[in-house]
Amino acid sequence: MEKKTTENFSSSENMKEKGFAAGQDRPELQKAIQEIVDSGFLGVQLRVHDEQGEWVGSAGVSRLGEEAKPPTNGHFRIGSNTKTFTATVVLQLVAEGKIGLDDPVVDYLTEFGLDPRITVRMLLQHTSGVFNFTGEYYEDGTVVPGIPWQGQEWVDNRFKTYRPEELVQLALSKPARFEPGTDWSYSNTNYVLARLLIEKVTGSSLAEEMQRLILGPLGLSGTVVPDTQPEIPEPHAHAYYRYEDAGEQKTVDITRQNPSWISTGGDMISTTQDLHTFISALMGGKLLPAPLLAEMCKPYPKIGYGLGVFVQNAGPNGDVTIITHNGGISGYAALMYSTPDGSKTLTASVNYVDDAAMSLAAAFQKAIPRLVEEVFGGGQAGSADAAEPASKQD
């Protein structure tokens, strides 16, 4: 799909804020995002590209105590959508002959003592079994903690710098969740290893390779690989965190933070326009050769996860396939959905007040499939990742 800007459709910012684009008034979409706000979230910005054209709108507020709506061209932290970008870079390097998809990772990253059975494919598909450095949540309710990523401890240290090697070493100091290739479990460690793999084989930083292979070619000027930088470019909505201190509830603005604690598990910043351009180009075959795109979209049977994307069935008869990855990080949630050919997309951001109890998880789990259903034609299209508005996955 040809990249288009909002200005192509409307000369009036007021019209854009009300959701008018390509001459379309879509009250059902405005209603859907208003319902998300009504369920407890601060604000939503939504972009839809489909057979009716482009629709852009927002609802709620950009920051606590003010009335301004979230900017429809706002920047936000995209959480685990970072994984789709990272997987795409790895697969592009496979296409260039620099990496073998089924090669042992230890052949490239010799310094960590990785299990030699772990392949590059297993990293991208979360089948390596490597411990998740943000903590493991087992079916029996057992929790094995990783680095601090919630509560007052995280708030007080949210500008701390972690190096990716440090996160990997912490993960490898814990028991593996399962034997490589025998099961599936979401682990941010896989994608930090993918970052280190990219940097090892290219001799360049992840940011440089992302610029060379994706951001530059697609003109994604609103997308940032921040590494340790705490800032989000203007304009942007604000994110918050609520915690208890000496028996009192405190809410702090956490828009600025050092995202190195999550690294390539979810550190990138983007816009709904850039996410649309990226997922549409990726699914449209503009970034990967057809055989590698097919590998990316081949789901693991247990969970429907390919290589950096979820593959879901939607529609009343389950006959609509959607390629997606959502993400959440500290008061921001990001949504990215596309048909397999890239012709129809939904990209969105939600800003909210996060907390250790993930109080809004149930509301998020209910609201997002409703929104997806409006765009892709019916059916429940939620996923385990979509159901986490904040930090459990990221």
Q: Beta-strand percentage?
A: 15-25%
- Structural class computed from helices and strand pairing: alpha+beta
Report the radius of gyration as a whole number of Å.
20 Å
Mean pLDDT: 89
Topology order in helix (H) and strand (E) letters: HHEEEHHEEHHHHEEEHHEEEEEEH
Poorly predicted runs of 5 or more residues: 1-23, 379-393
Largest sheet geometry: 7 strands, antiparallel
CATH architecture: 3-Layer(aba) Sandwich
Number of extended strands: 14
Give me the number of helical elements. Answer: 11
- How many separate domains make up the residues? 1
CATH H-level homologous superfamily name: DD-peptidase/beta-lactamase superfamily
**Fold-level CATH name:** Beta-lactamase
Helical content band = 25-40%
In a few lines, what is going on in this structure?
The protein has 394 residues and is an alpha+beta fold. Helix content is 29%, strand content 17%. The protein has a single domain (6-376), classed as DD-peptidase/beta-lactamase superfamily (Beta-lactamase).
What does this structure look like?
There is one protein chain. With 394 residues, this protein is α+β, with helices and mostly antiparallel strands. The protein has helices at residues 13-17, 27-38, 81-95, 120-125, 151-156, 164-172, 188-202, 206-218, 272-283, 290-296, 361-376; strands at 43-50, 53-60, 76-77, 136-137, 143-144, 240-245, 248-253, 269-270, 310-314, 320-324, 327-329, 332-338, 345-351, 353-355. A hairpin with a 2-residue loop joins strand 1 (43-50) and strand 2. The strands form four sheets. Strands 1, 2, 9, 10, 11, 12 and 13 form a seven-stranded antiparallel β-sheet that branches. Strands 7-6-14 form a three-stranded mixed β-sheet. The chain has a single domain, classed as Beta-lactamase, CATH 3.40.710.10. The radius of gyration is 20 Å and the shape is globular. Helix 3 (81-95) crosses helix 8 and helix 6 packs across helix 7.
